[in-house]
Amino acid sequence: MPRTKRVARLLHIPGIGVDRMGNKADAAHDPQMLRLENLDTDIPPPAIAIDVTRAAIDKDDNNSYLPFLGQDALRKAATERVSRVANIQYDWKSQCIITAGGMSGILNCLLATVEPGDEVIVTDPTYAGIINRIRLAGGIVVFVPLIPSSDGWRLDIKALERAASPKTRVIVISPGMPTGHILTHEEWEAVTKVASQTDAWLLYDAAMERILYDQRQVVHPASFPGMKERTITVGAASKELRMIGWRVGWVVGPVTIMNDIGLVSISNVVCQTGISMAGVAAALSTSDDGLPTAVSVWEKRRNRLLQELEGLPVIPPHGGWSLMLDVEKLGLSSPDASEKLFANAKIATTPMVGWGNSAAKYVRFVFSNEPEERLIGIGKRVRKALSI
User: Fold this and answer.
1) pLDDT value at position 134?
2) What is the band of 1 on the pLDDT scale with cuts at 50, 70, 90?
3) CA gap 360, 379 in Å, rounded
4) For labelling, which of 24, 38, 99, 291 has a CA lying 20 to 30 Å from the CA of 238?
5) Mean pLDDT calculated for residue range 358-371
6) Beta 249-252 vs 231-236: how paired, if at all?
7) Which CATH number does 47-285 carry?
8) Architecture of 8-45+290-385 per CATH?
9) Quick check: helix, strand or coil at residue 298?
10) Element (H, E) at 269
């Protein structure tokens, strides 16, 4: 019988919690259950993406391993997207790789940049999937707090400066996920300064960069002086384009690192989903991807949720698909609060255990997948379930 001792790289990887709550909600088969645990959305992808994908199924070129780094049309479209947002020109042939989803791209980048024992700075809270991938790559996670307030989150710049060390190899920033924190220009300046001082890579998870509320504007870190050479941008079709099941992402970055990321990519997932790439290329290239309308809908849902939970310790998100409730201030642990919400209010949420040093006090509410009318009255359900 094989040895059953767990391998060391998995000892500090607890999972993400979303899968357990999602499976539990699925098993309930209850149409009254509010699905606020998982980053899905009911807003469809661009129509052109669906039409092009249907046509792609019949094309033999899409039933192939080749080209390993992604189809040319998609590499061109993804490169154009990043170039336009960052206001920097990238070359699609040497500076873009297509990946099997954004998180696959994140792992490929970490495996190409991190030696065992290197330090990787992330915000706290941050997505558990990113934390887990850093540890799989052999990196040491260094958390920098996000400071919550009734006005939203802000980066603890002093803590960021203290976190920097000669061992800092990568800084990972993921705007909007999971807290809804969107970096200000001042906060980006602080991040880019630390990256330059420590000679670190800045790994920018751009999957939600344009999902912004209250008329905020995108600030791309590569646009700061000297940052094009050290910023690696990872995008995905899952959020802004609402193409979750397509499993397509992209990496755009400096020529000096792209060959290594490509080598990891070929050694990891090998290639992307052939029948998905043409649809994503079409969605990236269309003049109407539906995002402004989608953001308007998500913002109304956010506002409804904030209105319903007014008076409770929630932190308003400035972007993304989710917000946090500090249940510790209500005298509860997040697993207990999540269970009470599920059992007593038919609300599926995710406890933030494993999402950072301070994250376990929070329960996450995702507002991207439930229509606003289904959120009416959720405040009463939450208060009753948690005995507030």
Assistant:
1) 97
2) low
3) 22
4) 24
5) 97
6) antiparallel
7) 3.40.640.10
8) Alpha-Beta Complex (3.90)
9) helix
10) none
